[in-house]
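Sorry to interrupt, but I need a hand with the structure work. Please put the record directly below this note.
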Amino acid sequence: QVQIVEFGGGLVQPGGSLRLTCASSGIIFSLDVMGWYRQAPGEQRELVATITGTGNTNYADSVKGRFTISRDNPKNTMWLQMNSLKPEDTAVYYCNGRHGSSSYWGQGTQVTVSS
């Protein structure tokens, strides 16, 4: 059974940093694309960043230059380094992994940026 778990969220002051981790289990193949998404209260889920198995990355304009996505392919593990956090980054952050037509989601981790 495929399981994806995110951790590393929490409360941080504006300008601070957090590092999110996405860990997977029950997967015997390498995920094609992994990505981070977020959903703020009352808003739709939106893309934060994605990374392919070859290391190609894509970022939302709102996080470019502040967030860095990375992954360990053999372990299907992914990270999101978030620097210079802003109150508008507050959301539940979700990990996603795709392989062929299959898409796997974690349960999310809360990130709150507030003084």
Notes: The chain has a mean pLDDT of 94. The two ends are 40 Å apart (CA to CA). The chain is about 0% helix and 55% strand. Residues 2 and 27 are 6 Å apart (CA to CA).
